[in-house]
Design a protein that fits this description.
Blueprint (H helix, E strand, L loop, with lengths): L1 E16 L2 E15 L2 H16 L12 E10 L13 E4 L6
Amino acid sequence: MKKFKVVIEGDNFEVLLDGKLGKHGFFTTRFVESKNSKEAEILAMNIIRDELESMVLNDRSDPPVMYVEENFEIDNFGDNPVPGSGFTWFKSEETSH
């Protein structure tokens, strides 16, 4: 199995942070083993979905989005915890349609 570092960005997540409900985005990194880069992306996304499932309060008509920002093969995981954890949250920009 190959090792991959997958950086994911999310946006439009309605979550409760610091006691306040609001729309937020995030960046996070996950380290996974898989046969190829596409499989690594799917695995990392599924890990994130499972981690966030209980936090996300979006209405079905306004779903959050996630996409892979970076995905590259690495020689080893080094000192990084596998698969990794945590999120760097930011407030989503309010947009008018």
